[in-house]
Design brief:
Number of strands: 22
Largest sheet: 7 strands, mixed
Bound molecules: succinic acid
Shape: globular
Distance between the termini: 71 Å
Strand order of the largest sheet: 14-15-16-13-12-18-19
Length: about 475
């Protein structure tokens, strides 16, 4: 890969301020999902390496937590500036390991940088309170203090933004970090760590290690010096990590799976609904946990919506992320393509009809055709669980209450969307949907300023927004006596 700043492609891990190999020298190959060609190698860290990173973070904690909030904010601002300065290299590294189109990768770097910028501001607003004391001789206060070493396990679908959303919050709060990026996409995280170092972050404050999830996760979830675990990924893995963290009662934040309903009512602006459905469903090739997974369309506009949506989907261009004019990259793995294929087969066997796409892409490899299926029902596999691919099932409904009941009939509760011009309905629907995030007349709502997180089996805690920093803070009560 040709990069203007070749040093950003780091093939070592960062522990205690040093770039190093695994203790036993073992490495893993990172491959481009579009071509399967190797991008490079990263260390396969051992349990000892992982414990070393935790100890480095713990050693650095005393110094970092006692820096002023202003100093931590200034570091974050320098990191933010460097991320934007190197936007193009970071985006190209991301495309090579993740596969998303270059324009989306650039957008993700901006999204990642926005969390660093946001938490630079939040660092200076970590305030306690003064309580009305019931005692004449004592005063009561709350202090907000960093929890300690935060372990961050980040996913492959947003290699920059999820690292930034967690790490910037943790660092702003005064925590030190051990981050473990997904094995498929470690280079973006390592490049961000290189920039954090250039921004002047003290050694050991941010450590980034790579390797097998089971080996590293095994240590991060049990090590007594880790106080906090934040994970983004599947619900099954999240539950497993939560159970392991119970032994040492770590604080845990989980951003897990979704099964987002996207409801189009008869009174919707159909062109806006089509644009919103395209944006929500096909972002990152359908590989986000907030992607529309079930598209409910009211009977009066079902045909009109399908007549506009399906041709727009059919026009989406799948290809290698660096090629011009590409809308959708490859899926992350062969198993992801097989899963999508089997969900489509199940839907077709149960009476769905193909309105666009419907099969693997003629390009072969990990490409799947952007697909719309009509006449779907909630019982189909692709409506019961997250597809994580470019397939939109359309489900017809008659009454508002039916749509809401079907939308809420899911163990997940991350994101939901509805299109309507009726203000009373918009409010009713927003209040009734059992989801952590609701978009009315918009298919995109992720931004640093808003809280991101789910209800039910979609997770615990919130990231970004006003509450994201709380996940990395303890509230301490202070009673000051002897004032009589
Ligand atoms: C995710 O899918 O994991 C995150 C998506 C977002 O931040 O919008």
């Amino acid at each position: 890969m040709k990069l203007a700043d070749a040093a950003l492609l780091r093939q070592k891990v960062l522990i205690a301020g040093h770039w190093q190999d695994a203790a036993d020298g073992a490495r893993m190959t990172v491959r481009n999902p579009a071509s399967d060609a190797p991008v490079g190698h990263v260390p396969r860290c051992t349990e000892e390496d992982t414990a070393g990173a935790v100890e480095a973070a713990h050693k650095a904690f005393a110094g970092w937590r006692t820096q002023t909030a202003k100093a931590r904010a200034q570091f974050l601002r320098r990191w933010f500036d460097l991320v934007l300065l190197h936007r193009e290299e970071l985006a190209r590294i991301m495309v090579s390991e993740q596969g998303k189109p270059l324009a989306e990768a650039r957008g993700e770097i901006d999204y990642a940088a926005s969390f660093i910028d946001w938490f630079a501001g939040e660092a200076r607003r970590i305030n306690g309170e003064v309580m009305a004391s019931p005692w004449a001789d004592r005063r009561l206060f709350t202090l907000r203090q960093p929890v300690g070493v935060a372990a961050l396990i980040t996913p492959w679908n947003f290699p920059a933004a999820m690292l930034a959303r967690k790490a910037a919050a943790a660092l702003a709060a005064g925590c030190t970090v051990v981050a473990k990026p997904a094995s498929q996409t470690p280079f973006t995280a390592l490049a961000l760590a290189e920039l954090a170092q250039r921004a002047g972050l003290p050694a050991g404050v941010l450590n980034v290690i790579t390797g097998e999830a089971a080996t590293i996760g095994g240590v991060l979830t049990t090590h007594p010096l880790v106080s906090k675990l934040s994970f983004t990924g599947s619900t099954d893995v999240g539950k497993y990590l939560l159970a392991r963290c119970a032994g040492s009662l770590k604080r845990v934040s989980l951003e897990l799976g979704g099964n987002a309903p996207f409801i189009v009512f008869d009174d919707a602006d159909l062109d806006a609904a089509v644009a919103g459905a395209l944006a929500s469903k096909f972002r990152n090739g359908g590989q986000t946990c907030v992607c529309a997974n079930r598209v409910f369309v009211q009977a009066g506009v079902y045909d009109a919506f399908a007549g506009k949506f399906a041709p727009a989907v059919a026009r989406l261009n799948a290809g290698e992320g660096l090629a011009p004019g590409v809308d959708i990259g490859p899926m992350i793995s062969d198993s992801a393509v097989s899963r999508i294929e089997s969900q489509v087969a199940d839907a077709l066997a149960r009476g769905a009809t193909v309105l666009a796409g419907g099969a693997r892409h003629p390009r072969g490899g990990r490409f799947f055709q952007p697909t719309v299926l009509g006449d779907c029902t909630p019982a189909m596999a692709l409506c019961r669980s997250e597809t994580f691919g470019p397939v939109a099932p359309l489900i017809r409904f008659e009454r508002e209450a039916d749509a809401l009941a079907m939308a809420n009939d899911s163990e997940y509760g991350l994101a939901a969307y509805a299109y309507t011009r009726d203000l009373a309905r918009a409010w009713r629907v927003a209040e009734t949907l059992e989801y952590g995030m609701v978009g009315i007349n918009t298919g995109l709502m992720s931004t640093a300023e808003a809280s991101f997180g789910g209800m039910k089996q979609s997770g615990l805690g919130r990231e970004g927004g006003l509450y994201g920093i709380d996940e990395y803070l303890e509230t301490k009560s202070l009673a000051l006596g002897g004032l009589a």
